[in-house]
Amino acid sequence: xxxxxxxxxxxxxxxxxxxxxxxxxxxxxxxxxxxxxxxxxxxxxxxxxxxxxxxxxxxxxxxxxxxxxxxxxxxxxxxxxxxxxxxxxxxxxxxxxxxxxxxxxxxxxxxxxxxxxxxxxxxxxxxxxxxxxxxxxxxxxxxxxxxxxxxxxxxxxxxxxxxxxxxxxxxxxxxxxxxxxxxxxxxxxxxxxxxxxxxxxxxxxxxxxxxxxxxxxxxxxxxxxxxxxxxxxxxxxxxxxxxxxxxxxxxxxxxxxxxxxxxxxxx
Length: 267
Ligand SMILES: NC(=O)c1ccc[n+]([C@@H]2O[C@H](COP(=O)([O-])OP(=O)(O)OC[C@H]3O[C@@H](n4cnc5c(N)ncnc54)[C@H](OP(=O)(O)O)[C@@H]3O)[C@@H](O)[C@H]2O)c1
Description:
Blueprint: E1 2-5, H1 31-37, E2 50-58, H2 75-87, E3 90-94, H3 95-101, H4 110-118, E4 126-130, H5 141-144, E5 151-154, H6 160-169, E6 171-174, H7 182-191, E7 196-199, H8 203-211, E8 217-223, E9 246-254, E10 257-264
Parallel strand pairs: 2-7, 2-8, 3-4, 3-7, 4-5, 5-6
Antiparallel strand pairs: 1-9, 8-10, 9-10
The structure holds NADP nicotinamide-adenine-dinucleotide phosphate.
């Protein structure tokens, strides 16, 4: 991996890194080194949430190939994906991504066990699924075998029978009417002490999170592929009143893939 731009300290940005100067070959072969590059800002320890998104896209902006993100990914992308999960308290994800990608519970990884325990984190992050319909396979391992009980976030007026069924196998949070109030949803996750927040999309959920002004950071993997076709972008559907400026804080390259890390520009 080549580290083209390394993180540096900023009041609203990530913690200071001891990585080598930008543009040099960096030994990012260890998970610990990658974890340092992607460290959450110190503010998460004082109860302030930080919402990071991790997404992959093609050069022409497609967020999926043949209906899935798998075709856009790479070995390094999966490695970073795993590190971002291992650093987080909670992974927020839209129900369609859970259904399409067959989401399983996050796993505990020995390499991160000590750091997670020291930070007071559960052995693996909680998966929190956002759904209006509650059309979820409740017999799937996501609900029957999680290390940490899965969370489902639904509107208060979601079908009562479905809410009751979900509450049997998951922690149900209800916020908003007609659709989940994402500001209240984030507050509910933060109130549980889960300030290191990660979202893995999909595009429809991510668009709303950005439009609500909740997104602090975007880790976008750029795959050296052209896809054309009808695939959505990584944010789809929601309208933002004003474009949000982001600043590049980290850039890694491997085999033509670019792994970017952009943070919200301080106001
Ligand atoms: N490139 C990438 O990095 C990446 C990442 C993730 C996913 N993907 C791909 O993206 C596709 C899925 O993404 P998507 O954009 O179609 O769907 P999505 O954002 O994963 O999920 C949309 C669903 O989430 C629920 N939802 C979202 N916002 C809600 C709100 N405010 N209130 C209540 N429920 C809400 C609804 O669930 P219900 O339908 O249950 O009501 C909605 O249908 C898949 O093809 C997946 O492979 C790509």
